[in-house]
From TrEMBL:
Domain of life assignment: Bacteria
Residue ranges crossing the lipid bilayer per the database entry: 12-31, 43-64, 85-109, 144-165, 177-199, 219-244, 256-282, 319-344, 356-372, 384-406, 427-445, 465-485
CDD domains: SLC6sbd_u1
Endpoints of the signal sequence: none
PROSITE patterns: NA_NEUROTRAN_SYMP_3 (PS50267)
Gene Ontology CC terms, in alphabetical order: membrane
NCBIfam families noted in UniProt: Na_transp
UniProt-recorded name of the protein: Sodium-dependent transporter
The species this protein was found in: Metabacillus arenae
Membrane topology listed for this record: Multi-pass membrane protein
Subcellular location, record wording: Membrane
Any single Pfam family the record assigns to this protein: SNF
Amino acid sequence: MENRPQWGTRAGFILAAVGSAVGLGNIWRFPAVAYENGGGAFFLPYLFALLTAGIPLLILEFTLGHKYRGSAPMTYARVNKKFEWLGWWQVGIAFVISTYYAVILAWAASYSVFSFNLTWGDDPAAFLFEKHLQLAAPGEFGGIVPSVLIPLVIIWVVTLGILFAGVKKGIEKANKIFIPTLVVMFLIICIRAVTLDGATEGLQSFFSPDWSRIMDASVWVAAYGQIFFSLSIAFAIMVTYSSYLPKKSDITNNAFITGFANSGFELLAGIGVFSALGFMAAQQGVPVQDVVEAGVGLAFVVFPQIINEFPAFNGLFGFLFFASIVLAGLTSLISIVETFVAGLQDKFGISRTKSVLIGGGISALLSLIYATRGGLNFLDSVDYFINTFGITLAGLVQVILVAWVAKELKNLQSHANGISDIQLGTWWRICLTVITPIVLGWMMIDNFRINLTTPYGGYPIAFLIQWGWLVALAVIIIGIAFSAIKWKKEHPASVSNDK
Ligand code: PHE
Ligand code: NA
């Protein structure tokens, strides 16, 4: 009765899940977050967050997908007919992210080519903002930038091409090639980085613990925030990927492997990035703290500066760095787009080809917004709001609905225990019914407090309302609207959800 696609191998599923988890967050977010929140002392809250929320939620999402065998909307509808909107909301969040994530990959693709000639010159900041992006003021579009458009088209062709090919022949195969390649390339960079002059000072400032920060609630919030974002939780992604698992699959083990592999890559990135920062600080004769950056500034301004000063093979190491960003990001983008490809297929009974064409096509068209001269401003604001008032809030609603309203945890626990080596106990349910809701609830209150008092990034309020608050709200409304549409094939609840 079942014609749902399946992963070919267990390693294929794990590589795809790790491919989704390992993304820009590992490379340009984790090192700075750890550094700013106590350095070596951050590892305690980080590990705590991984074990009490990250891995338990990963197990929850793997179990939901495996048991109910559907995209996020179908899975949540099968838990309870009234929960379908949550699936669409999460799919909507993934959709919004896909529109700008592709653009960052397009920049990185250009920079991997620029590396060979050090095209960015002596002033990479001026190059990025004035030449490459031709950045306009917040709220202004100012026409499409051709040098961004061309790589963007290539990124979409590759991503949608892989999705057309299907779960096994497309997603699985791509991850089997991309992830090992990424690990090798990134290892080469890190080995070179730790042997640079000044690397020791960089590593020292990264690892030296500031225990005075440990009682600070914001440090714990940062740890949980990093874990949620980094593991791609509450995005519909892990539910979708695990809906393609064969009946016999060790869910709990897979979740632990995915969680630890992602954190391992984060640690590696922290070592590589801070070695390189230590090198740059030594070159410029300034303290390491003066050169620490995250996000776009780290990747597209600081790293080009580091590459400029590299003792030898600048071009090669520049290429390896930006190609790593492209591969890490591409495997995440594939997983993001797959959430709505699967959702549309389930709901409207259309073929994968049609679904990729429609869903991927609309996302690709919308991504042109960020290829305009005002693109970076829109991207920055949408990214911040969809993360703060999308993922966190959707994660909170998810645990409340599944654990408290549907009281599903005991059923899910026995489902997972029936097929897994490691047996889930009461601790798993406590993590999800008590710890995770408290932390997420606290984070939400904190987020509202901060954003209602200080406008994010110093942008004009009207800009933040349009490109922040309204985007986050629109996704919820669209989620509810989609759940009101009738199912094409069969009502999801009428399909047996055999245990
Ligand atoms: N988990 C990814 C990372 O650490 C980020 C991501 C965001 C992945 C959105 C999928 C969707 O970078
Ligand atoms: Na990650």
